[in-house]
Amino acid sequence: MTTYVLVPGGHMGGWLWQDLGDRLRERGAEAYAATLTGNGDRRHLAGPGTNLETHIEDLVQLIDHVDAPEVVLVAHCHGSFPALGAADRRPERVSRIVYVSAPLPMDGFSVHGLVDEFEPDPAVRDGWRQRAEQAEDGWRILPPSPDDVQARNSVAGVPADALARLVRLASPQPLGTLTQPLRLSGATAGLPTSGVFCTGTGTSIATVESLVRSGDPRFRVLTEPRVTFFELDTGHWPMLSAPDALAEVLLRAAAGEGQRVPA
Q1: How far apart are CA 93 and CA 263, in angstroms?
Q2: Can you tell me the distance from the alpha carbon of 81 to that of 67, in angstroms, rounded to the nearest whole number?
Q3: What is the DSSP string of 204-239?
Q4: What is the pLDDT of residues 71-111, one digit of tens each?
Q5: How confident is the model over 135-165, as pLDDT tens digits?
Q6: In terms of DSSP bridges, do strands 193-198 and 227-232 run parallel, antiparallel, or are they unpaired?
Q7: Where would I find the AB hydrolase-1 domain in this sequence (predicted)?
Q8: What's residue 249's pLDDT?
C-alpha cells in the first residue's frame, strides 16, 4: 500500500487536500495531509522566528510518526521547499517526491531567491518583493484577497464553493519560510522525482524541454531516468479542480510512470 504525505503551499493548511486524500484512500492508498506551523489551524503557533527550517522539521516529525516504511511526498506550490528539505533529512523514508504545480527547489535558494533568479517578468518579481516589504509586524505576509487569489494563480475548474473556502481559510504566511535558503546535504541526489504541470497556468512539459535546451547545467537533473513528468489540463489548484485526475496521476507517479525528457 502506497502512503502519501501531502504538503500544501503558502497560506494553506492540510484542509486543502481533503478531497484528494479521500480519492487516494478509495483507491487503496493511505494519505496524511500536513499542516505546517503558522498555517491552517496551526496559524496561532507562528512567530518571528518561524522559517523554512521550522516547516522542514514539521514534515520530518510527520514522516517519523507515520507507520509506513516509506512515503511519497506530494508538494504543492512552494511547499516543494520544505518537502525536499525533509526528504534530505529522511532519505531512507521517502520513495519519491511529486511536485504539483510547484517550483523546483534548489540548494542555496529560498523561494524569494528562486523568483529573483529565474522569474522573467519584472512585475512578478516586484510583487513578491513588495509583499515581503509590507509584511505585517515585519514577519508575516497577509493572506491573499479574493481578487489576489484569482490574479496570481489560475483557478480554472475550481468550484465556486471551494474557491470561497480557499479564500476564507487562507492564513498569513511567515516571511522566514520564503526567505531562508534551503540547505541540502546531497542525500536526495538519487531520489525519484515527478513533476505535475497544470497547463492552465501556462506551464507544461515543453517548459522543461526549454530549460534543458538553455544549456544551464542546473537543469540537467531533469533529464535523468529517475525524473518523470505529467500534465493535467487544469489550473493551479488541481486538488480542488480535478481531484480524481490528480489522484490517478499520483498513483502512476508512485509506480514510476510518466514522461521523461531526453538530454
Answers
A1: 29
A2: 24
A3: -HHHHHHHHHTT-GGGGGGGSTTEEEEEESS-S-HH
A4: 999 999 999 999 999 999 999 999 999 999 999 999 999 99
A5: 999 999 999 888 888 777 789 999 999 999 9
A6: parallel
A7: 5-249
A8: 98
**193-198 and 30-33 strand pairing:** unpaired
In this structure, what is the dihedral angle of CA atoms 199, 156, 32, 2, given to the nearest 10 degrees? Answer: -40
At residue 68 the predicted structure's pLDDT band, cuts being 50, 70 and 90, is very high
Q: Which amino acid is at 90?
A: R
For cell 487569489, name the residue: 149
C-alpha 170/C-alpha 162 separation (Å) is 12
Q: Which helix (H) or strand (E) holds 162?
A: helix 160-169
> What is the rounded end-to-end Cα distance, in angstroms, of the chain?
33
State the cell numbers at 159.
468550484
Distances (CA, A) of 225 to 50, 109, 132, 210: 36, 25, 38, 18
Q: Is 102 helix (H, G, I), strand (E, B) or coil?
A: coil
Distance, in Å, from the CA atom of 174 to the CA atom of 119, rounded to the nearest integer, reads 22
Task: Please name which of 111, 108, 82 lies closest in space to residue 6, comparing C-alpha atoms.
Answer: 82
3-state secondary structure of 33: strand
* CA 15/CA 8 separation, integer angstroms: 9
Nearest CA to 152 out of 126, 170, 176, 127 is that of 127
**No. of H helices and E strands in the chain?**
11, 8
Q: Give me the phi and psi of 217, to 5 degrees please.
A: -65, -20
Mean pLDDT for the stretch of residues 42-63? 98
pTM of the predicted model as reported, rounded to 2 decimal places: 0.96
